[in-house]
Design goal:
It is a single chain. The chain has 134 residues and is of the alpha+beta class. The chain contains 4 helices and 6 strands. It starts with a helix and ends in a 15-residue tail after the last helix.
């Protein structure tokens, strides 16, 4: 588990965004502009200089591939994640946008398993706290 902890620590400035339609241009500038626009709508302004890297990842699901964003600072990431409840009022081309923690594959599997247990009422709630490193 130590390797996963160290790997997760390297993801601390990153988020995964789901729901951005595939017809939004995949180049870094277009995706960055999209994130800046969403940040403004969430009242969590983001400047281009705040974004280190942004790109699509993984396989296409439901006409949308996840977008990974690595920020220069955790403060920007944390500001967006804190305001992500405001995303419920934002949609793009009829699609909801979701901000999620950028988890390692192992932690993503564990979280998925926990969510399934929550759905069948074996546990009451699931939560991720990637802001701390143990």
């Amino acid at each position: 588990m130590l390797a996963s902890s160290e790997e997760q620590y390297s993801h601390r400035e990153s988020i995964q965004i789901n729901g951005i339609p595939n017809d939004i241009d995949d180049n870094e500038d277009a995706l960055a502009d999209f994130i800046i626009n969403i940040g403004d709508q969430m009242e969590a302004p983001v400047k281009r200089d705040d974004i280190s890297v942004v790109h699509r990842a993984g396989k296409s699901t439901h006409n949308s591939r996840p977008v990974l964003v690595k920020f220069v600072s955790r403060n920007t990431r944390d500001k967006l994640m804190k305001n992500r409840q405001k995303l419920k009022d934002i949609s793009v081309k009829g699609r909801k946008i979701y901000f999620n923690d950028d988890l390692t594959p192992l932690r993503a599997k564990l979280f998925s398993y926990a969510k399934n247990l929550e759905n069948v009422k074996c546990i009451s709630t699931t939560m991720i706290n990637t802001l701390q490193h143990y």
